[in-house]
Each structure stands twice: as C-alpha cells, then as structure tokens.
## 1
Amino acid sequence: MFTIAVDVMGGDLGPRVAFRACATVLQNHPDLRLILPLETSLHIDAQKALSRFSDRVLIKPCQSHIDMADKPARALRQGLSSSMGVAIQAHASGDAQGVLSVGNTGALMILSKRLLGTLGGIDRPALATQIPTRKQPLLMMDLGANLEMSPKQLAQLGLLAISWYRARGIMKPSIALLNIGKESNKGPEDIREAGKLLHRAAPECYAGFAEGDDVFNGDLHALICNGFAGNIALKTTEGLADWLTTMMADELSNSKSLRWLIPLWRHTIKRIEKRISPARHGGAMLLGVCGHVAKTHGKSDEKTIKYALEYLVKQTKTADQARLQSEFDRLQRGLNSPE
Amino acid sequence: MFTIAVDVMGGDLGPRVAFRACATVLQNHPDLRLILPLETSLHIDAQKALSRFSDRVLIKPCQSHIDMADKPARALRQGLSSSMGVAIQAHASGDAQGVLSVGNTGALMILSKRLLGTLGGIDRPALATQIPTRKQPLLMMDLGANLEMSPKQLAQLGLLAISWYRARGIMKPSIALLNIGKESNKGPEDIREAGKLLHRAAPECYAGFAEGDDVFNGDLHALICNGFAGNIALKTTEGLADWLTTMMADELSNSKSLRWLIPLWRHTIKRIEKRISPARHGGAMLLGVCGHVAKTHGKSDEKTIKYALEYLVKQTKTADQARLQSEFDRLQRGLNSPE
C-alpha cells in the first residue's frame, strides 16, 4: 500500500469537489490509501462521498484550516493543528509518502520547511511543474515562490532539477536558463553569472540559455528561472491556450460549411486539451524540501485536483528521494568548489 | 503623398525578400512613397523588383550597413553613412514620416535617440507591439530594450502608453502593470512602487496589476513590464501558438475519419493564423523617440516585413505625434509633482 495525505480545506470551491476527485483516483489506484485531515463538520460528508473506499481512507480530525488570504505568520501560529499542518505531519512521520494541498502556497512553503526540512544548501524551496511540449515534458521552475534570485540560488535550482531527474533514472538531463537571447553575453547579469556557475558544476547537463519560444520545443528536460519570470511565462501560455481553443470552436460555429463538423471536432479539441492539460490543470511541486509536496491553485475544480493527485502518486512512486538528496549534495560540492 | 524610409540591409534573409514586401505594400497604398537606402550593388535589383512603382520609390545610396552581430559602438561610428542611418536621417529631416528597419535593434535604438531625440523624461526608448486578444489589441511594452527598470521608469512607460492612445483619439485607455498577482501587496517591490506612481499620475487610466493569463482577455489597452518579462511572455506565447497550430493539423492527419477534412480545415487554420499573426509576424515600435520608428526581427521573411510595413503606415497615418508629446509632458508633471 501507498499513502498520500491530502489537505482539501483551503480551496475556493470547498472540500466537496476534492472528495469527488479523491474517489476517482482511489478507483484508479487500488494500492492507494489517503489520509484526509478535516474539521469535524465535514466528516460525515467525506464518509458519504468516499464510502466505497472506507477501508482506504483515513479521516484525521483537525481544528482549523488556513485560508487563501491568510498571512504566512498565521500558518506558523495555527499551523500544526490546521488541516495543512496535520497533512504535512503525516508525511513527516512516515505515515504518508506524499502531501497534496489545495491551500495557501506561502503557508505550505513555511510549514513544509519547518516540518520536513530542506535539502542542504537550499534556503527556500521552489515551485516546479512539468509542462507538456512537442516531445518530452519540461520541468519548469521556479514558478512564483522566489521572485528574485541570486546567481547562486538560480544555479542551485538548476542542480536541483538535475538531481530530480537523476532520482528518476535520467542521468543526463538537459537543463537551460530562461533568458532573452541564446548568446552568453545576453540578458541580465545575474542570469549570465548563474550560467557560468552551472557550466562549472554540471557541464554534462547544462545546455546554456533558452528563449521563450524554445519552451515548447521539447529539446530540454528542465528550464530554470526566477519565480517572477516563470509565473509570467506559465500564466501567459495558459491564457493563450484558452483563447486558441475557444477561437477554433468559434471558427467552426461561424462557418456554414463546417458547422456540422462540430461533434467530430469536439472530440479533437478534447484530445488536444488532454495533451496540454497537465500543465494547465495539474499542480505544482515544492522542490527543495525533504519530501514529496505538491499543491494545486485555490480555484482548483474536481478535474484539477484529480490531475494533481494522479501526478503526485506517479511522481512519488517513481522517484527515489534519497537518491535526489545524494545527487544534489554531490552537485552542490561542484558549485562551491574553487574554480 | 506619404513617405516611409525602409532600411532593408541588415536582415538575415537579405534585402530581396524585403523588395517583394515593399512592392505589395506599394500596391495596396497608392498614396505611399518609399525611400530605400541601399548599397550600390543592390540598386539594379531594387529597380527591377520595384519597376512598377518607380515613380514612388526613391533609392538613396549608402556606404555600409550594420549587421545583426555588430556592437552598438559600431552603429555610432559608421552609423550616419549606413543604410539605417540614412533611413533615420530621412525621417529626422522630414523627408519621410516614419522609418522601418529590418536591422540590429541596439543600433536602431542608439541612432534613433541621436538623430530623432527622445521625449522629455525618457532615458531609453522602449520596444512595444500590439498583440491581438479576444477583444481589442493590447499594446505590450517593453519587449526587450530595457531589461531592468526603476519604478519611475516603469511608470513613465505607463504614461507613454496612455499618451500613445490619446494621440490616436482614445482618451481613457485602460493600462496595467504585469505582475504575478492582482492584489496591491503582490510581486516585486519595484512593480508595487510603480503601481503607486501610476495611480497618482493617471488614476483614470491605471487599472492595477494584471497577470499573465489576463494578457489575451482583451480588457486592457496596454500592459507595462520590464523588457525581460515582456520578451519572455511574448516569445513563450509565440512558441505555444506554433505548437498548437501544428498539433491541430497533426490531429486531423492522424485521424482516419477527419483526414479528408484537411483542405477545409487548412482554410480555418489560415484564418486563425491571420487573427493571431500581427503579433507573431508584425514588427515592434520604438516608443519614446520623437518619431515613428519600427523594426522587424532579423529573421523576417517577406510576410513579416509586409505586415510590419502595413502596420507602420497605419500607425503613422492615424497618430498625432505632437499630441503624444504634449500628453506625455502633461502626465509626466503629475508623476513628478509632490504627493
């Protein structure tokens, strides 16, 4: 058996949509158990929604939950008795092999750092997600946890990405820094400096700078940037993908000769959405903490939570966390060694 | 009559593709004249390619051209006798009402500043483009000229965008700052500070922060960001748009029941590409200089140059440059006045 702790209390749409997502994922994975920290008022609802899986769902009482609007300070004060705190503690104690939260990102960051600890050398964990591309998925990080980063922090993020892939058996992932030009003299000073550090610490994996239009090529395994750039890039593409799929549907409805194709076309649009959807609906991972922590955004609906939970199950099953730590430690020494 | 100076010498594909683009645009605009600064070796080619419009094309001799790889210092040394320098001088002297260059962006920036001057209060011009959205086009700036900007420089860019719209008769454009959250406490310090300045100087136009997924909504007239963020956002969406249109074509060819639709579908794809293409193929404007200066990227093909030239013709005809300057001066005083 295999256990994930799910904190469903902080989402905008309420925990009930999450119960339905949990039921689907439990159905798909007969070896999966879930720990659900819930305030008492929700226990009966949860039991009803998950009654078919009662032997694989453990409801844990908690006293509060952290709202999206709550300041991180509140997370520290009320954290341990909140649904999020109880979920992370279940992972820290070994009862669960991973945590998914639909809640406040800042609070998740603080509580994960405190209860799970971070990899040596990482000050603040980063948010990462794998986005689909023309070929292999691309691990993009940071997506908003660290708005500004020093060259060394950017380089550490690169080494973390390499370690993440090595923990999954991919020994020579190709990683790049997001920049506004490919030549080594392009872009801001801190990115150029980070490039030098990565070239020194991991020359076999570092592929130099990549530009925005390289994101979907599929030639890279990971793309490293500060949280501001990553958030902007990801959200802008989400906006465009939404618009383009609407536009295609409109094109068909407005055309007399094509309108009758809509039923056929709907099927194709569904398949395209499915191909690009893990990026748009799936969650983000908190990398740099000692554990498997993932989050979905506050507006997550049933589909989003289901994707994120499926993804976390897969990641947790296929990755060797001890390997990630040892690979990262080894690469870090290369970063810190004198030239 | 109405004249544009076109510098076609610096592009990667050579000047001949530009001659064809010029011919199409001359055909579409019977009141348009072009000034083409060209090295002597190209005069005969140009005369042949544009023979139908010989009464509306003035070929001006120049002694050199600035390559894409040239350092800006070279632009200053050889600038005035280069094709780019001759084109900008034609605008500065009033012989042309606008300039389009297929050449080096850094050199265009330096020579435009020197020969045309900048609006009072603007240190460095910005690159801007209008991208299509669900509703009205969105003026996005900066796109790469200024990688980092102070709060005051960001705010000036916002005022420049407002002035740009007012010079076109739109008195209350809605402008926003690109950020990673909508709340006023989100994002980096410099953006929050710029927000305060814009709120003070232009409360009737400033709409607060916008996120990446708002870019294509069409609710805004202008979106302001530093050149790093703007470049990343624009190029990432270009990459996704390319991939999505390929993916749709692939979906059809791979489906037995849909394959026969490809001829019909090709028509729809073309129309979608046309709707989104001004952003992908059109040029960028250099805003903040005293004049109408536009550029296309070095890899520009015939279609790209044609779009950019058409766009410049339209912008130059519809905008009142004196009005832009006076609006900007007035707004700037609001920015500089004590609180």
## 2
Amino acid sequence: MCVPGCMEAVRAGLSRRGFFGRAGAAAAGFAATAVTPVPAPAATLAPRSFERMIDLTHTLGPQFPTFFDTPGIEFETRAEYAKDGYNMYVWKLLEHAGTHIDAPIHFAAKGASVDQIAADTLVVPLAVVDVVERADNDPDYLLSRDDLVAWEAKHGRLPRGCCVAMHAGFGRIAVSDPARFIGRDVDGTLHFPGIAPEAAAWLLNDREVAGLAVDTLSLDNGPSTEFGTHKLWLTAGRWGLENVANLDQAPPTGATLVVGVPKVKDATGAPVRLFAFV
Amino acid sequence: MCVPGCMEAVRAGLSRRGFFGRAGAAAAGFAATAVTPVPAPAATLAPRSFERMIDLTHTLGPQFPTFFDTPGIEFETRAEYAKDGYNMYVWKLLEHAGTHIDAPIHFAAKGASVDQIAADTLVVPLAVVDVVERADNDPDYLLSRDDLVAWEAKHGRLPRGCCVAMHAGFGRIAVSDPARFIGRDVDGTLHFPGIAPEAAAWLLNDREVAGLAVDTLSLDNGPSTEFGTHKLWLTAGRWGLENVANLDQAPPTGATLVVGVPKVKDATGAPVRLFAFV
C-alpha cells in the first residue's frame, strides 16, 4: 500500500486542498489563528508493505457505554427468519456511539459532514501516544504538548497528515468496567482522560495532522464543560475518533490507519471500522 | 500491505478456520453439498505495495434507492449548533441500505452476525467481473459460471479468499437514474442484474471465495422470488456486498478490498465504507 498522499484523488470525495482549505477558513473564524495547510503526506514517505492488521474497533451494542447515558443503538425487528425467510433490523442509532468518528460539522455552524470528509484523509499514518501511567494516576488526565514533544524526541517528527491517538489504557475497560470507563461521580460529573486544547492547538498550528483519536468517550476529558478541543479541532475541519479499541497492540509509529466510515449524507458522526496495518 | 492471509489473527475476531468451519457446517445443512474450506490466501501471494485508492462507496441519504421502497435512513435531530453548541442526529437506519454488507445471519436461522465476521476476511483480493454489455441487453441478467470461467481464462484462477464482484454498470445509475436502478415494472416486479445461484454454487464448491459483491440492489436479480444466491451464499457463512459504487474504476484483478463495516452486535447487515487499494 502506498502511503496516503500518493493515492489518486478519489472521484466522489473532496480534494485534500479543498478539505483543508475550508478547514483553515473555518478555524480562522473560530480561533483567529492561522492554520498550517496540510500537504500530501506522500512527499516524505515512500511506498511500503504491511504484514499484519490490528482491529481498533469495539463491538457496538445497546450495552456499550455512551457519553449521553442512553443506549447508543437499539434494534427494531423488521423481518424474522422463521416467519419471513430472512432476518433484518432497523437501527435507532446515536451517530456518536461506539468506536466512531466526529465530523467537523459536529461542533461547528458550518463544516464537512461525514460524507464530505475527503476519502484520502481516511487512510493515514498512525501515531500512538502512550499516557497510560499518567491516566492511571489521574482519571482526568489531559494529554499535553509536552507528551507530544516527548513522543517526537523518541520517534521523530509526527508524520504529515497523520492521526494522533491518545492511548490512555481505557480501551481495556470499556466493556469490562463501563462504570470506570464513564467515571460518573456522585455529582454527575464524568471522569476520563482527554486531549488538552493547548496540545490540539499546537498540532493544528505547528504540525500537519488530519485527525485525533482517543480510547475514551470524548476528545475532551470527562469534566470538560467547554469542549475546547472539540471546538478547536473540528472547527478547523479535522476529524476525531472516540472509543478506539486495542491501542495497546499498535506501535507508537509506523502503522497506517484505515478509517472505514459509512458515507452517510449530512451525518455529524458515524460508527466506524478502524483497521491499523503494520 | 501484506495480503490478507499473512495478517495476524485479530484479537476480537473469529479465526478464519472457525469462520469457514461454521460456514461449511451451515452450508451442508442447507444444500447438502460439501463446501471447500477456505485456506489463508497468504500461502500463494507475496507481500505487495499499493499506489492508489478507489472509493467503492455510494453516499447514503434518504433518497438513495432501496430494495424495500422505503427510505434507507431517516434523521432525528438530537442537538443543534445554534441552540446546543453542537450538532447531532439519531439515525433510523435500515441495516441493508446504501453500499452495505449482508452477514450470514441475514438469510439463515443461525449464522454469523456482522460483529462475528472474522476481521481478516474483510481485507481480501478483489476480482471484478465485467458484465456491463450483457446487462445493457438484459436488465435481469444473471452472472453465470461461464462468465467466471471466461474471467479466469483471461486473468488466472480466482485468488484464494477473494471477493468476486459483478460489475453490471449499475453503479453509474444508482443516483442519476434511480427508477432504472430499481427497475420496478407496472406489475411491481423489480428488474436488475444479479448473480446466478449456479455460479454462486460453483464458487462455493470449486473455488475459495470469501465474499460476493454486486453494483445492484441485491445478490439475486430483480425478479427473483427464491433468493437462491442469498440463501446458498450466506447460509454457507460467506458475506455479500450490495450497491457497490465505482467498479468501472477498479481493475479486473490485483486490487485489495477493505470492507470497513462498523462492528455492530447482532446486526444482519450494515452500511460499509469500501476502499480498493491498487
């Protein structure tokens, strides 16, 4: 597989230039900062081969924890094998449930919906930042700019057009310990790690990153009421991934992430299949 | 990227052996035929690189044609930016709408649901069989065993563990001419091409194929009331893809298909993102 940037423009998608062009305009309106355009990552990476695949996706059912304290999905039976000769459901689906994508329009007055995210920004280098130990000591831990600088000191500059994933160790407890995964306290405040807005701003302004990912319920940490990272990142035309699974199996760098998101018109988010190829 | 078979077993998925083992058992019950087990395709294919990506996915909205004459998706607004500071919908989704997967359980009393399809059978070699000219002359055209034999005469034996895709030219008209795409006549009978059950049976018994794909509404052709290909193929534990887009851009052989299907528990089908890497 070639790295993303050397892929041809996809017929039905938006061009990278168009996508990030709008992103910059939107971000300028929100944060009054200049956003570095994201060039094609191919310029710095040669074609490469892959030898194994990691499924970064949780199974989504009615029991999977959600941010909203309601089931993420419910089923209505439309056909049954015994009666109709086949089985079929209709889903009532909260589009931000399970392992899912946040499209720019999720936190912006205007912005790309799921179907408008450029296809070639959905196949990107994956950078995994391990904050497990810090998150074990602080359930509200915010991944910081220092964490990113430390990652670069070990692994080199973040690849152009990559997805930066926070690995807080929460993928392990999403199913086994949903109460801890959500972290709701007696006052109703949630507690789980997220990405600091200042870290997101640094990535937006000083690096060339297509997406953020977290293994928790939200890009912002549990207690956040401002949703600063959501606002900054999505308003800038980038996408986010939440409830990512199995990041403990992914290398810090070198994998390619494929974001398998159904191309649903106008959607602000959608459940996804995430494969990392190593 | 390595070809699928050399990928490590994915933690949360079923093993290929387990998947096709159940498939064989189910098929034996239905068709009283022995089904050839499908070995890992890696045995015959070396690691390879890819240089471009083709998006084989239609955009799914309420207007996209469905088999059932009802909208495939409808939206309920859960949050609005102007009022709530963010946008969010709940989808009412027919799980067999748009470019989607049929899981084995769709046409079987027992069988794998979407979440139970082994992850490593979702990244497979793609074989595209062009029947556009025949479909132009016969809207009910059935891809035949002869078509498959002719494909092999040109391109060699179908790769182990591949997806066989029927390219009937219907991807071009799904959006531009939905009435012709559905082909409903005055009596209510539908007209569009599909795959003949005898061709599916040959693939099941004499080749080692993971999935079937069509650029029409159904694996069976429009007038079918028996759904012979659905029953044979899905009961054998294989998956199917319907409403595939842009097959005119895919080569007859040499591409790798990634089936990005959300991992929804118990689902009989699901909208997917399909990427072909060439």
